[in-house]
Batch of 4 targets.
Target 1
Amino acid sequence: MYYISTRGGSEKKTSARVIKQGLAEDGGLFVPESIPTVSKDFIKKLAEEDYAHRAADVLSLYLTDYTYDELLSAATDAYKEESFGKYAAPVKSLDKTHKVLELWHGPTCAFKDMALQIMPRLLSTALKKTGEKRTALILVATSGDTGKAALEGYKDVDGVKIMVFYPEDGVSDIQKLQMASQEGENVNVCAIKGNFDDAQTGVKQIFSDTNIAKELDEKGYFLSSANSINWGRLAPQIVYYFSAYCDLMNAGDITLGDEIDVCVPTGNFGNIFAAYLAKRMGLPVRRFICASNVNNVLTDFIKTGVYDKNRGFKTTVSPSMDILISSNLERLLSLATNGDDGQVKAWMENLKSTGKYEVSAGVKQKILETFWGGFCDDDDTLDEINRVFRETSYVMDTHTAVAKRVLNQYAAETGDTTKTVICSTASPFKFSDSVLTAIKGAPETGDAFTQLDELAETAQASIPKSLAELKTKPVIFRTTCEKDEMVDVVSQMLNLA
């Protein structure tokens, strides 16, 4: 299988080459030339396998220049019990209709681990397949979870250096500590004085600067990405939607062929787009509920066909969704226009120059047939955490609560009673301050580690080991820069100046 740019300005490439490269030369995102389809027998076979084999089976349909043994080895190593517990992505039941897909049992307690534990292994294989002798410089912009997950996944990986930028005041205390205390000889972290969109824009500008690329090449480096703009990050996310469906089958909640709905708390649109690809492959999914916080640019787009980022950026209790530029939406537009790269390029140029674009009536209708968008504010988010805990004793983090609240809106508006998988994207312990505020009115103290203990007692749950250990880890990274100084930070990291 070959991959092409959403904007048409790149030659066809193998999966190994696009995983190595990350972003297309024209600034577009790589998409497969065609989407593979699967049979019911394929899904039935997956239901009989463990998660590593499910991952290898699904990924083998996309990464066709990798051998099955290479993919199985990478998946087995990534999803081992030491990293994820006995099961990588368990499905828990809230009630007969609503099921929670817990994606945060990995080493950093966020759903990003599901992709970022296997992605470095895919990249290492890609470097060998392409004969690459230079060192890969992974640049990451994060709204909280991607940064730590990428740092943990790539630490001390041969042939790789990684630099993470995060908004100084746009992540939780726990998220900040996770990144600032990261160990590894090849890692670096910097806070920027700005928001996530500033960080993401800065990284994209570095990627598109030919002078920087030339300088890096002369010094023996090339740029790559661990964000979901990289196909090697997005493809593994497809797996857990198939896995959840199989687990529902095995639990007797559905039979093979039954349709489900999927509800995803959404920022950069990568997680929900992976679910959409699963549907296009043949997974029986009826509708996607796209849940946003008050940075509701995606809700407005789905309802109106107008994408407009010209609005005030708001900091919320669900910081990983505080995003106004949803990069992976470009991939959906590519599919919705049947690969009309000229049109996609024009929309992206409008977004860059004016901050907005409007799709055609036909594209809008295609999206509305499958997607439903809604949002909620912080008060609603906290209220939902409280309500679910009171009624079921289940503790949700702030992002999962956004999804559940929006799902309630969807059910009330449509009357849809289809069984629904809710993506739970982070451990509630990563946002203990907000979760305790929701359940008890306020935490007893402002100390992040005391809050972990308090939440454990309140929820009758164990603190994840990786979070408990933060208390004794020293802060290694304290660098802060202006948003227009990111290039300088990269140069200093690599001693290019």
Target 2
Amino acid sequence: MRLINKFGKTTIATSMVAATILGVANVSFASDSSASLDENAQGQQGQDRAIAFGNTKNPKNVIFMVSDGMGPSFNTAYRYYKNKSGAKTLKPTAFDKYLKGTNRTYPNDPKENVTDSAAGGTAFATGHKTYNGAISVDTNKKPVKSVLEQAKEQGKSTGLVITAELTDATPSVYAAHIDSRDKKDDIAQQFYKDRINGQHKVDVMLGGGSKYFGKNNGNLDKKFKRDGYDLVSNKSELNNSQSNKVLGTFSEKDMPLQIDAPKSNPLLVDMENSALNKLSKNNKGFFLMVEGASIDKAAHPNDITGVMSEMSGFETAFDNAINYAETHKDTLVVATADHSTGGLSIAKGKDYKWNPEAIHKMKHSGMYMTKQIVAGKDPEKVINEGYGINFPSQQLDKVKEAAKELHKLPKEGKGEKDEKVVAQTTKLQNAIQKPINDESHTGWTTNGHTGVDVNTYAYGPGSSKFKGNMENTQSAKNIFDFFKKDITSNQNQQ
């Protein structure tokens, strides 16, 4: 078994979580002009809140939230996780009330019928199905317009908030056009160089991936600063940012999982709040994409502790977005996933039981502990500091042995991209996580993606357009239709 980021460079880090730049001329976009805009009914769920919208039928603002890798079993598991052990009735999560339908996630790929994040993101950002690895280009590698670009053309403010690298697949599909998601330096260059009406495409960029904006890629951060952007690298600086335009990179690569993050780092909800404060100053409205990317990052190595931590962070951000929409009647909130990851099973073995209480006791994720040991820290100390449940001595011996074998490999001339290093790092993480997966009765079927339909949640004007089982392209088509109406009036006034 191996854990490799299929379309990215294989490193020790990526093993644990799994040419030419195309121009942007002649960009096209998909639209469903035949769809009805009748939004008088919001459905049985959330009817009490829908009443407040009066005659507002078309959103001026859109908050589109992506829970990367979050399949339906994740939502169910999180409901168990949120409730007390032994509860006879499970209280709903923040998501449950706003369930509208499901999305079909398959790509348009001649070799594969299960999507990656690039093809999935391109679908709900542009309305076009494409091949795995493509960043907002169609199957002929022709650029296709994103809803963010449409928003910017209409004078709206735009934002990308993410817990992974800003150049990761999902944020990239909104502001770049390139044939391969691997070309992260080129993607960052497009973020800076490509303009709409003489302006940068994205006003607020918050996430990880500082390495793609620094000196090794043309000092893009300094160029953004000269163009009026605040540069921030921690929570305090973000809170003190005064400009309506900001580039925040809070880690060299992906941001740490919520359970492992230092207090100096902003959480997803912190970044979302900062973005909303800045974007909402534009009377023409805004488009904001918020991604809980690390649900997927933790699911690839089957890290249930990391998954539940990131689910909690995404739920907080979703609830915060709903609260914003309740007081800004012209705002639509949509949350969905690009695919499911890992094939999460709630209960494994012969017992009809899943035990989230064990997960609650964990102090760090398996990903974090693996990185610590890879960096040379004592395995026993790392396990004692990270585990909240009993760690069998025999299993600790297996962790020590896996770490010993891993540390031998560089001496043999094996670099971090070497397949043996990747395989051994995966073996180490599996050994670390086995006790928590066993104690919680958590099962997994794969280290990759699955092809299941994913849930869609929505609230606000236009939310009924997301009902039923839809192609993942329909999200973009709906938003294009909304933005074609070019609602610039203050709809908060009845």
Target 3
Amino acid sequence: MSNLSSIIKSIQDIMRQDSGVDGDAQRLSQLTWLLFLKVFDALEEELEFTQDDYQSPIPQALRWRNWAADAEGMTGDALLDFVDNQLIPTLGNLPGSIAQNPRAYVLRSVFDDTYNYMKSGHLLRQVINKLAVINFNRQAQRHQFNDLYEKLLKDLQAAGNAGEFYTPRAVTQFMTDMLNPQLGETVMDPATGTRGFLVCAIEHFRQPVQPPEQERLLQTAVRGVEKKPLPHSLCVTNLMLHGIEVPSQIQNDNTLSRPLRDYGRADQVDIILTNPPFGGTEEPGIEDGFPADLRSRETADLFMILIMKLLKDGGRAAVVLPDGFLFGEGSKSRIKEKLLTECNLHTIVRLPNGVFNPYTGIKTNLLFFTKGQPTQHVWYYEHRYPAGVKNYNKTKPIRIEEFEAEKAWWGSAADGYASRVENEQAWKVSLDTLRAANWNLDQKNPHVGEQISHDPDELLADYARLQTEAQALRDELKHILAQSLGAEMMVKTAASA
């Protein structure tokens, strides 16, 4: 197989010559739907070999092998007309429900919001011919799929797509290892992105290698929802590359747009692994679907409410959240009160600066909790840089080996983590202390003296915290004033009557 990086680079170079493709994000979007069709066709070849009665949901003329595989096939205006007026419209409107025809459902979900940005049919043919040399035999070359996928992810990150950033592999693996999902349990990521947590869960399920009957169980063991088309398409493609034949359980939707009351038992899962978007706000009206006392426009806050709803009793969750959630007031305090009284928030791993560099310098935390029992105390573990490292960056990211100290300290949920001991990196805080602090989870390490930081990111975070606290005080004063004015008006009205 040719070097994948060089193939992808040559494809991108061809696309740069096309006047219709504007920027890295469009180039990646164009490559993604072409790659999806190529992968889908390769998987269909396997199914045709193993199933005598296999029927493709794609009309014969639109299958990759019948229009793209021939290097001397359609090109120029004929190819553009075919893609723009037949291929994409037909695939985006395939009939079939998720229950009756899940493969058609997956195809429709990918192509419902897909565009051909290229204006030159000759350049498009060149791109297709470059993809044709890739042999998508997933049994023999899965590691090369991963190489290809990582290259696509790096390109997506470099494109700065709508301010999105993605969870480092070491973090997703650590969170998955600590929750330890077992076959028979369902794992969900309600803000899936491009697949990181779900792939980690799939790989965890497959250790050790599962027999065929267990592999069938794995096909429906993960669920995800992603509202943006490009990450959704990348997620679906990658799950197919990881052996999920029909990833119909990955929806292109916004989990927050559905009112909280509409989620029932059928929607609940055993495990949630997620890094919900933070720092942004939802469109007006989304918060109306949540309880009045918990409402917030901030995306991460709403996801925390949703996560608690989607967990079964006894269900486990691991969530990435910024410092702002830990110290936030107002609705954040009420969300944290709900979390601590309805769930056992047994562990918060505090990550250092730079874990998400270069996408954000915001300090983050990993929250681990189990639904169904109130919190008695919260254990904190301060993850520190390894020796010789002052910050993480693109060339020196956080590594899974760095979490060995946490794993050795972790203990077992079966005995309530009784083996845990306090040390210079680990400490625990009682529920009473947190209640007295108005549910402030930003509890500093007592084993480290007061330190003055000159780090710009930390100073900005402190400024944001002070602004949040000031706004909360202003809101409280407005509420008191409104109540006072309301009472005064009632007295005057009564007197005039």
Target 4
Amino acid sequence: MIENAFPRISPNNNKIAIVDSVGSHTYHTMNSRIDRLAAGLLKDQQDLQEERIAFLIPASLDYVTVLIGIWRAGGIAVPINTASAELELKHFIESAGVTRLIASPDSHDKVRELCGNLRIQLLTVDDLVASECNRLPNVSLERSAMILFTSGTTSKPKGVLTSHNAIRAQILTLLEAWKWSNQDVIPLFLPLHHVHGIINVLSCALWSGATVHMMPKLDLDTICSDVISDTYSVFMAVPTIYVKLLDHLNNLDIDFARAVGDGFGRMRLNVSGSAACPINVFEQWKEQTGQILLERYGMTEVGMAISNSYAGERRAGFVGVPLPGVTVCLFDEFDRQVTEENTPGEIRIKGDNLFKGYWNNPKATNEAFKRGWFCSGDIAVVEDSYFRIMGRSSIDIIKSGGYKLSALEIEGVILTHENVSEAAVFGVPDDTWGESVVVCICLKAGTKLEYTDLKNWCVDKMSAYKIPKRMRVLDSLPRNAMGKVTKSMLKEKL
């Protein structure tokens, strides 16, 4: 039964499960509301039979109610980014074959016309919550549970179809690896249309009986105040948020900033992911808080696959070792398994955590698998048993002058320049080199940097063939909801 699979919620548990803008909600209250929404979705049906239901709801008890309510009724949940533009919404809804859209009242004006044109039923949570709940269907672990869309950094977003069993496996491996307990308290400000927010934070917390403070958006002042008060035991964010926090602390009163840093230091765990954490950010966070960030690697299709150790060594620039129950190997361009360390290869993954396929896209699904291995498209090397990500084969691996260069490695060096706040490196076609290295940078306020100065600065910090051939200064870098730079957009601007 789904109740025993995901998430494990005790109906009689009066511990606080969710804190949102309305107030605090116990596991008992949440569980009852979930069941009644499931009953409202079903009406006279016995089972939704994997009906795709989308929802556009900010972080709140309502979000949790809808997500798990759809699962308990036997449907497939399709969480959508609340910041999506109309064309994006249209793509998600049409691609997933959605029949109903549940949206917060504030979002109805935004989607009413679109739903009318697509003949999609538009609902609120209050429309669906029944006065009571009778019998809910038994939903097997093999059933489909969720469609999430890929970030679309290199292509049009694809719908990733995941089973209840895969979700369960993704949760259980993190509960073991990161030592979740019912005493944990964690803030959730990450996007809830992405595995980082849905699985790593919300699902792990609810499964373990922890408390989640749900925030529709990141509020640095609230975070800092809560940190000083020892509200949280676990903190998970993307590198751009850690950068924002460091900048924020630098602008605060020295004593207050020190108190915030000490508060982070008292937590049992700080996690960084979704994009590579620059080594300088890793080191600055350690200096400011005493915390050694735990970096991990994952993607929409697999959840988390690799993680630095909870209790052991955490290396800057590395994502660690395969998680329990997950098998990870590197393969070269000839589909041969890489057995030597320091030799680049594509990350391929096996395990119960794997998705079922891309929704209504058998061609893309077939291309994603080879001999049972999921082909991630990410290139890595292994050094002393730890994986280091070099980047996406499609955009972060630059083939220049016979070398395979890691854009992430070059970015990491450039980010140590005292005037550079952000950097994005990629390759562009070049008749001589095959591809030439280009960097787009953002400068710190009040500073300047010419290309010749950067080039000269790089001479004793990286090999000559890695030094960018061109540089462009921008006010900001385009990023997706998870903080990853959309390099395809940068290429279009050159």
